[in-house]
């Protein structure tokens, strides 16, 4: 199983094995909320694959990885895990960068920040600095994985409209309901739109979401599996621990 080149809040690192085992037969695999793409990078490639995220920086990174991996690797060779470099990148106006430089900046900031939040320089007394992104061989694997994949940068509803067929499988991992997001609005309105679209889908879907009574009500009649996940992305001991998530399918 390949590890994604970035981490992302809410990434499915802990659940991906269970999710991958539940993927039904399909021809076209669509990931509507890609983030770091734990499931995509973990599963066997499908005949046709589509990855989508509304976040322009995420999409730019994977586009540049797909087409300009050699240049990204070359630039990353000169990077070092250092606080002043991190601060410089944070304070850079991305409009002044080329798309390749933007990709390097983004992967650097996420990989070198605390809990991959891209805000504060991440350091520890028990873990070494994250070296994976500086390894050329690894980035080549990522590029190869992306070779036969369409990359979209749309809101989820437009992707469903474009790709929904009987032979399509949608993996949906939206921002959690009523929890802090990614600086991108995803509230009840968006969750209800997703719910309506999934109810009317021609293809199959697997949705992962936090366990919330309202969510269970919206998806009544579908298969709902409860799973426990361990999270540890907080400095505060009180915010760590086990959380319940739901895996909802229409098959
Ligand atoms: C929970 S994360 C996905 C994590 C991913 N499954 C992983 O393993 O890393 C949710 C993602 O949805 C994206 N997003 C938010 N609103 C969206 C929308 N309307 N359409 C598509 N993507 C959206 C965010 O940018 C974020 O990357």
Structure overview:
Keywords: Methyltransferase, S-adenosyl-L-methionine, Transferase. This is DNA adenine methylase. GO terms for molecular function: S-adenosyl-L-methionine binding; sequence-specific DNA binding; site-specific DNA-methyltransferase (adenine-specific) activity. InterPro entries: M_m6A_EcoRV, MeTrfase_D12, SAM-dependent_MTases_sf. This protein is an alpha/beta fold. The protein has two domains: 1-54 and 154-251, Rossmann fold (3-Layer(aba) Sandwich); 56-147, Orthogonal Bundle (Adenine-specific Methyltransferase, domain 2), CATH 1.10.1020. Helices cover 37% and strands 17% of the residues. A seven-stranded mixed β-sheet has the order 3-2-1-4-5-7-6, sandwiched between helices. α3 packs across α5 (99-111) and α3 runs antiparallel to α6. It is globular and about 55 Å long. It binds S-adenosylmethionine (SAM). Residues 8, 10-12, 32-33, 35-38, 52-55, 58, 155-156, 173-175, 182, 184, 186, 190 line the site of S-adenosylmethionine.
């Amino acid at each position: 199983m390949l590890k994604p080149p970035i981490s992302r809040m809410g990434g499915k690192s802990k659940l991906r094995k269970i999710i991958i085992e539940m993927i039904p037969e399909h021809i076209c695999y669509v990931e509507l909320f890609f983030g770091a793409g734990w499931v995509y990078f973990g599963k066997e490639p499908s005949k046709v694959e589509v990855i989508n995220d509304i976040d322009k920086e995420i999409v730019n990174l994977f586009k540049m990885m797909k087409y300009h991996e050699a240049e990204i690797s070359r630039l990353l060779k000169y990077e070092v895990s250092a606080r002043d470099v991190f601060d410089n990148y944070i304070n850079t106006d991305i409009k002044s960068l080329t798309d390749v430089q933007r990709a390097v900046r983004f992967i650097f900031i996420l990989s070198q920040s605390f809990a991959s939040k891209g805000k504060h320089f991440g350091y520890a007394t028990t873990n070494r600095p994250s070296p994976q992104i500086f390894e050329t061989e690894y980035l080549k694997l990522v590029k190869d994985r992306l070779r036969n994949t369409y990359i979209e940068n749309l809101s989820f509803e437009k992707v469903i409209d474009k790709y929904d067929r009987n032979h399509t499988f949608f993996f949906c991992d939206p921002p959690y309901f009523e929890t802090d997001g990614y600086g991108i609005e995803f509230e009840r309105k968006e969750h209800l739109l997703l719910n309506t679209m999934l109810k009317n889908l021609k293809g199959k879907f697997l949705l992962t979401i936090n366990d919330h009574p309202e969510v269970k009500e919206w998806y009544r009649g579908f298969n709902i599996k409860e799973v426990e996940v361990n999270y540890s992305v907080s400095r505060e001991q009180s915010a760590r621990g086990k959380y319940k998530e739901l895996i909802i399918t229409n098959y």
